[in-house]
């Protein structure tokens, strides 16, 4: 478990989707505000603030990031499929 204001990363590929226009089978959905979008060689790290001082970091493909048009300040929903979760501290 992390201390308050300490960051934990949850890695997933292509797991950020806008849920307003689709229905999903994944039950673990967390809404927040994008605070950072950092592209890398093959994946983009997206930080979503889900509560004051609580930030979730998702790793998605660069292609998915471009298709979604992610921008700082946007509202996003992290969709976490239980079988695809990796936690690092």
Looking at CATH, the homologous superfamily is: RNA polymerase II/Efflux pump adaptor protein, barrel-sandwich hybrid domain
Q: Beta-strand level of the residues, as a percent range?
A: over 45%
Helix percentage: under 10%
Apparent shape: globular
CATH class: Mainly Beta
Number of helices: 1
Main sheet specs: 6 strands, mixed
Summarize model confidence as the mean pLDDT: 80
Pfam families: TOBE
InterPro entries: Mo/tungstate-bd_C_term_dom (IPR008995), Mop_domain (IPR004606), Transp-assoc_OB_typ1 (IPR005116)
Keywords: Molybdenum
Protein name: Molybdenum-pterin binding protein mopB
Summarize the structure.
The chain has about 90 residues and is mainly β. It is about 10% helix and about 45% strand.
Model description:
It comes from Granulibacter bethesdensis (strain ATCC BAA-1260 / CGDNIH1). This protein has one helix and six strands; from the N terminus they run ββββαββ. It has a six-stranded mixed sheet. It has one domain (10-84): OB fold (Dihydrolipoamide Acetyltransferase, E2P) (Beta Barrel), CATH 2.40.50. The chain is mostly beta strands. Helices cover 8% and strands 47% of the residues.
Topology record:
Layout: E1 8-11, E2 28-39, E3 43-51, E4 54-61, H1 62-68, E5 75-80, E6 86-88
Parallel strand pairs: 1-4
Antiparallel strand pairs: 1-6, 2-3, 2-5, 3-4
Using brief descriptors, characterize the structure shown.
47% strand, 89 residues, 8% helix, 1 helix, six-stranded mixed sheet, single chain, OB fold (Dihydrolipoamide Acetyltransferase, E2P), globular, mainly beta, 6 strands
């Amino acid at each position: 478990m992390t201390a308050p204001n300490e960051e934990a990363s949850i890695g997933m590929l292509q797991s950020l989707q806008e849920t307003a226009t689709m229905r999903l089978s994944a039950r673990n959905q967390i809404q927040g505000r994008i605070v950072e979008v950092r592209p890398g060689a093959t994946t983009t790290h997206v930080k979503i603030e889900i509560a004051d001082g609580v930030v979730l970091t998702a790793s998605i493909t660069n292609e998915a990031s471009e298709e979604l048009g992610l921008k700082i300040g946007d509202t996003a929903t992290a969709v976490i499929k239980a079988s695809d979760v990796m936690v690092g501290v």
